[in-house]
Design a protein that fits this description.
This protein has 13 helices and 13 strands. It is an alpha/beta fold. The structure holds pyridoxal-5'-phosphate. This is DegT/DnrJ/EryC1/StrS family aminotransferase.
């Protein structure tokens, strides 16, 4: 097969798919003279509310803010207090953990199963103490992380369920969208995400009227109405330009996710190399934000793919508990998470890939 050159993810190509519509939407905002908390934001929030199925969607600055604002709002509402424990996967992006510690809450890290990458519900049960108040469930890689065992643990122990839906826009569980499975969810529209803006943006979705009001207020300095402040808030808003772009791109999200699924399905069916393992649970819905493969010789595989024109990424090379910023967690041991950090390699998987490119990726992997 002829050598190809394949970027891990070309944001240029992602945007070019809809560039005319995006430019038209952006032009309208530019011409409107109104750049924050206006019609474009309202329109997108309504569209995303309809899409996720929740009663509320509150746009905010980014995905980390979305999660941080949820925990902060629960503190303002008296449902969480400093020192309360939040169960969170050990194998996640740092932002999931930052949202917890930022609020003076204690992250209690739980390992995934190596076979499915799902949160180990046995370890999760063992991690529960009389201070455990919530679970932050992360739909990592775009795969729905919810299952009956986790739902059962949350119900039995009356834990609040908060979703980190940064990887999983458009994913479903029992006919509900992720982002509508628990009490509240944080969404990221970082440009590389399945629903990506042209800059930073995020949102909180929830069915809880009070939470929605508090989150909206916290993101706007804590104001109840102009110049009257109920909370010591911050500034975290989605801007009109990003909202307008997202409103265009949301219309294509399902189609683009379907293309990701088709690509992933092909790769799962055709990758055939004993050195490369695919950890996936075919039951859970998966919008394939990231297509991870696992290989003991990960760095060699990465170099080999690079030499063959295929760029890859790592999600994530160093687990949160091994980071310098979390000294107090450094002594903990999470062998599964550490093994994933050592062996994970993210293969290109996005709607701009052509069939030829996907075939080339598979053939190259099989020749390793
Ligand atoms: C991207 C991401 C976030 C944070 O989103 P930002 O918009 O970049 O702040 C949170 N959690 C996970 C799992 C992410 O991948």
């Amino acid at each position: 097969m002829e050598r190809m050159k394949i970027e891990y993810l070309s944001l240029k190509k992602i945007t070019e798919q809809h560039s005319e519509e995006i430019q038209e939407a952006a032009n309208q905002v530019v011409a409107s003279g109104w750049y924050l908390l206006g019609e474009a934001t309202k329109t997108f929030e309504t569209a995303y509310t309809d899409y996720i199925g929740t009663r509320h969607c509150i746009g905010c600055g980014n995905g980390l803010d979305a999660l941080t604002l949820i925990f902060r709002a629960y503190k303002e509402m008296g449902k969480l207090k400093e020192g309360d424990e939040v169960i969170v996967p050990a194998n996640t992006y740092i932002a999931s953990i930052l949202a917890i510690t930022e609020n003076g809450l204690k992250p209690v890290l739980v390992e995934p199963y190596y076979s499915s990458l799902e949160l180990d519900d046995y370890l999760m049960k063992r991690a529960i103490t009389n201070k455990t108040r919530a679970v932050l469930l992360v739909h990592l890689y775009g795969r729905c992380a919810m299952n009956e065992a986790i739902a059962e643990v949350c119900k039995r122990h009356q834990l609040m369920l908060i979703e980190d839906n940064a990887h999983a826009a458009g994913c479903t569980y029992n006919q509900r969208k992720t982002g509508h499975l628990g009490h509240a969810a944080g969404h990221s529209f970082y440009p590389t995400k399945n629903l990506g803006a042209l800059g930073d943006a995020g949102a909180v979705t929830t069915d809880d009227d009070e939470l929605a009001t508090v989150v909206r207020s916290l993101g706007n300095y804590g104001s109840e109405r102009k110049y009257f402040y109920a909370h010591k808030g911050r500034n975290s808003r989605i801007d009109e330009l990003q909202a307008a772009v997202l409103d265009v791109k949301l219309k294509y999200l399902d189609r683009e996710n379907q293309r990701r699924k088709d690509i992933a399905e092909y790769m799962i069916a055709h990758i055939d190399n004993p050195a490369i393992s695919l950890s996936f649970d075919p039951i859970a819905d998966n919008v394939h934000h990231i297509f991870p493969v696992f290989c003991d010789r990960r760095d060699d595989l990465r170099q080999y793919l690079h030499d063959n024109g295929i760029e890859t990424a790592l999600h994530y090379p160093v687990a949160p508990h091994r980071q310098r910023c979390y000294k107090s967690l450094n002594k903990l041991s999470f062998p599964v998470t550490e093994k994933l950090a050592r062996t994970e390699l993210s293969i290109p998987c996005n709607p701009t890939l052509t069939d030829n490119e996907v075939e080339y990726i598979v053939e190259t992997l099989n020749r390793f």
